[in-house]
């Protein structure tokens, strides 16, 4: 009998070792979420649901408490807008014209007074359609950078914050948001229907497109003005990163929903690229070494802020409210990480004014007509001065040499 018991216990120990959850890398998480089998994770689709279930399983394996309204899930019903300039609407009535998204929410309870929210959206564009910059018909938009990278980094941080030497003076709420591409639906819904007391949220961290760190190690950090201490903390922990900081708490990602609820925010972003909202945003183009660098940086910020009490909130200038209207476009992807004088071009659209004028990736626009271009805002203000069909002389800096080209809008 004793021998049988020893054998049984040995088998049990062996079984536990076999079923122990192995560590999952950020590359593995991105590879799963950006796989063709999920057909681009369109909000409300069965494929987005599969992605949600994967994230919930990862939360469970990491030992996070379920903090949704149905286990790890928080469902919301919305009516999608046919008009790309009009936001989708939440509704309590479910019918043929409505769709259901779901946030995935996990929690580390350190029995602390305040909570840090760490979020990233996991939905993308599905097969394309509104929002896609691909013009050759339907194709799977895998969104490896946008935003499988952010979700993978969130999971990596959840793992790091479980370790013995991790900061313990705050609780941590992890949210994978649905419906970001439809108009920040998931984050908006959570803030209006929170599953924790949001008055006890000290700050929110958002990761959206953190998978393409460039050779200059430039990371954009938005929201540094939303609490007095954030700018100092962001720069003090930079290490090998070059930080392009922005004061505003408002931007086209989920941190905005929290900022509008008077919660300090930081949004991390490695920059726009030619694969943005196209089928070519795939796993093999992700810079995973860069992701490690960014994740470690965010962890150091969390650690640095751990000794602080609840951060005071500060309103910032809403730059989106002062963006001028313009009737023309140059047809370029600006380099949002460029901190020099002018607007550096990061990509050229086919058959648009910039390409027809011979502009190239890397060119820095310093003047348009009579208007000086010193940064993104002055670039947009300059654009607002031109009409369709008008021709203007555009001055560019190409490799240190100034050139003048004629552009017809």
Describe what this molecule looks like in 3D.
- The longest helix has 18 residues, at 2-19.
- The protein is α+β, with helices and mostly antiparallel strands and 409 residues long.
- The model is unreliable at 1-20 (pLDDT under 50).
- It has helices at 2-19, 26-33, 46-61, 144-160, 185-192, 230-236, 255-259, 288-305, 353-356, 376-383, and strands at 65-66, 73-79, 89-90, 99-108, 115-121, 171-177, 201-207, 218-222, 242-246, 265-269, 332-334, 343-348, 364-368, 371-372, 391-398, 401-408.
- The protein has 10 helices and 16 strands.
- Strand 13 and strand 14 form a beta hairpin.
- It starts with a helix and ends with a strand.
- Strands 1, 2, 3, 4, 5, 6, 7, 8, 9 and 10 form a 10-stranded mixed beta sheet that branches. Strands 11, 12, 13, 14, 15 and 16 form a 6-stranded antiparallel beta sheet that branches.
- The protein is globular, with a radius of gyration of 23 Å.
Task: State the gist of this model.
It is built from 10 helices and 16 strands. With 409 residues, the protein is an alpha+beta fold.
> For the report, how would you describe the main beta sheet?
10 strands, mixed
The best one-word shape is globular
Low-confidence stretches: 1-20
**Alpha-carbon distance between the two ends:** 89 Å
Mean pLDDT: 89
> What is the count of helical runs?
10
Task: List the helices and strands in order.
Answer: HHHEEEEEHEHEEHEHEHEEHEEHEE
Query: What's the count of strands?
Result: 16
Strand content: 15-25%
| Share of helix, binned | 25-40%
Radius of gyration equals: 23 Å
| Oligomeric organization of the protein chains | single chain
Structural class: alpha+beta
